[in-house]
């Protein structure tokens, strides 16, 4: 065992030992993450995609209109689990590929571990994507009592297999493509669900779990769906609901969204049937913006997945629960994915005497979410990635980007009957030469107007011209 592993294990044990925390009889927490869902892919944002269950839940609860996520999967999931910006966990560089030997650092206490130590039953169903090269990185070792799902970032929805390129041992410069099964019940491979659509499989497992849970014991169910990440697949009956959409990708994607919406309706119905719903706090969030080349849409926001534009980082989010003191409205306060960690601990009634909030980036925003009070968050890091390279930060309404924000970089209405040309055909072919952007998102939420030059430190001014001073460079113009 390496010294780093020993240190990480000791840090976690010490952290848990010195916490004095308890759960004040609830509430149950249902945390649902949709994968690659765009801003314009739900009914409550005006989409043509039918999401009646999500719409009802969102309108009954609090629609979080300015909650931010990372540009891609693994970084956001690490923020959910750790309460730390990816730049503080080393996960700011794209996603964890199936062949990469790393994951969420082992010295980090996950929110599941924290809730479990406070008396919660903790369960996970769905996509992990935070490393699996060693079992220590996997959900059962990171605080979950049970796990049903898959480790990798993307796979077939029906066969539950993932195909990727792996280095050839005989020649490291050559590569070959391999395919393998990735579907697990705890640590055991599930081999009897070939042909079962994962969205349906996850919903059935959630319904089974809820039916067997004691309503008097607090439950934390983390449910990151595979949907609606590629590959674009859905049972035909859902795709057929959108025969009016000519673009094939958009039509299939819409079917996938509606299938997920139906699954969420079935899950919440199970919570109601078995006596948990009245005391359940539900969070619904995306993990990043939608990939517009794969059927998603973020209009009127700029850009999409893989970018630090608002279309890649402004999440579709709502909160639902009887414990919300103010609900049925749109909340425009600033929230980041790292904030769920301390916020949910407070919602769960967990107290402590340790230094949790000094070791995470998240801010407890329970009063913002439950009462509509002003957010204590004024700033956050979109990302700092020297590999891309791009850096983006936020302070109040101001957003500063240095480097290449990523592509797609424009504004893309959804393809429909009046605009049958595919999104791919409308993408720009050249990158902008601009390397610094400054946006006032209160005045310009769709990032049309780069005001960087207006606020440059000591910008040049025509007042200095010799023409103003008889042909001579002279003082007196500042």
Brief description of this entry?
The chain has helices spanning 3-18, 52-60, 73-82, 111-117, 198-211, 236-239, 248-273, 310-313, 340-347, 356-359, 366-371; strands at residues 28-34, 62-64, 67-68, 121-127, 146-150, 161-168, 171-181, 184-185, 188-189, 219-224, 280-286, 317-320, 329-331, 335-336, 379-385, 390-395, 398-403, 436-440.
Spatial strand order of the main sheet:
9-8-5-4-10-1-11-12-2-13
What is the H/E order?
Answer: HEHEEHHEEEEEEHEHHEHEEEHHHEEEE
CA gyration radius, whole angstroms: 24 Å
Mean pLDDT value: 90
- Kindly name the structural category: alpha/beta
- Low-confidence regions: 1-24, 417-430
Proportion of residues in β-strands:
15-25%
The N- to C-terminal Cα distance equals 65 Å
Q: Biggest sheet, open or closed, and with what strands and sense?
A: 10 strands, mixed
Q: What is the β-strand count?
A: 18
Outline: globular
Described by its quaternary structure, the protein is single chain
**Which percent range fits the helix content?**
10-25%
The total count of helices amounts to 11
What do these coordinates show?
- The protein is α/β, with parallel strands linked by helices and 478 residues long.
- The chain contains eleven helices and 18 strands.
- Strands 9-8-5-4-10-1-11-12-2-13 form a ten-stranded mixed beta sheet, sandwiched between helices. Strands 15-16-17-18 form a four-stranded antiparallel beta sheet, with no helix packed on it. A two-stranded parallel ribbon has the order 3-14.
- Helix 5 packs parallel to helix 7.
- The longest helix is centred in the middle third of the chain and has 26 residues.
- 49% of the residues are buried.
């Amino acid at each position: 065992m390496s010294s780093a592993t020993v240190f990480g294990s000791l840090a976690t044990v010490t952290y848990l030992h010195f916490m004095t925390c308890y759960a004040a009889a609830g509430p149950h927490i249902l945390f649902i993450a949709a994968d690659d869902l765009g801003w314009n892919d739900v009914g409550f944002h005006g989409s043509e995609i039918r999401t009646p269950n999500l719409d009802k839940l969102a309108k009954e609860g609090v629609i979080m209109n300015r909650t931010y996520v990372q540009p891609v999967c693994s970084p956001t999931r690490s923020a959910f689990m750790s309460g730390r910006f990816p730049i503080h966990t080393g996960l700011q560089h794209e996603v964890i590929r199936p062949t990469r030997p790393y994951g969420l650092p082992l010295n980090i206490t996950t929110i599941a571990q924290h809730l479990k130590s406070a008396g919660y039953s903790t369960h996970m169903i769905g996509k992990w994507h935070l490393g699996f090269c060693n079992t220590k990185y996997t959900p059962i070792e990171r605080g979950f009592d049970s796990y049903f799902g898959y480790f990798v970032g993307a796979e077939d929805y029906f066969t539950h297999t993932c195909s990727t390129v792996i280095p050839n041992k005989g020649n490291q410069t050559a590569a070959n493509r391999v395919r393998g099964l990735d579907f697990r019940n705890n640590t055991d491979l599930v081999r009897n669900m070939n042909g079962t659509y994962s969205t349906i499989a996850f919903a059935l497992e959630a319904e089974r779990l809820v039916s067997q849970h004691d309503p008097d014991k607090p439950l934390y169910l983390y449910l990151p769906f595979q949907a609606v990440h590629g590959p674009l697949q859905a049972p035909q009956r859902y795709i057929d609901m959108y025969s009016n959409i000519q673009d094939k990708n958009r039509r299939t994607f819409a079917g996938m969204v509606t299938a997920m919406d139906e699954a969420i309706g079935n899950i919440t119905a199970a919570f109601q049937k078995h006596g948990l719903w009245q005391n359940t706090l539900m969070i619904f969030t995306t993990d990043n913006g939608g990939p517009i080349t794969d059927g998603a849409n973020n209009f009127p926001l700029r850009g999409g997945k893989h970018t630090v534009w608002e279309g890649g980082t402004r999440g579709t989010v709502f909160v639902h629960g009887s414990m919300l003191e103010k609900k049925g409205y749109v909340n425009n306060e600033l929230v980041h994915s790292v904030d769920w960690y301390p916020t949910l601990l407070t919602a769960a009634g967990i107290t402590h005497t340790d230094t949790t909030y000094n070791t995470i980036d998240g801010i407890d925003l329970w009063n913002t979410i439950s009462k509509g009070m002003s957010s204590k968050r004024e700033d956050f890091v979109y990302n700092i990635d020297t590999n891309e390279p791009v850096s983006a930060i936020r302070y109040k309404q101001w957003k500063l980007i240095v480097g290449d924000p990523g592509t797609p970089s424009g504004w893309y209405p959804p393809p429909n009957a009046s605009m049958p040309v595919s999104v791919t055909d409308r993408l720009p072919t050249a990158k902008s030469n601009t390397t610094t952007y400054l946006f006032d998102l209160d005045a310009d939420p769709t990032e049309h107007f780069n005001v960087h030059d207006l606020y440059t430190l000591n910008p040049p001014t025509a007042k200095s011209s010799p023409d103003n001073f008889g042909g001579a460079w002279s003082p007196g113009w500042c």
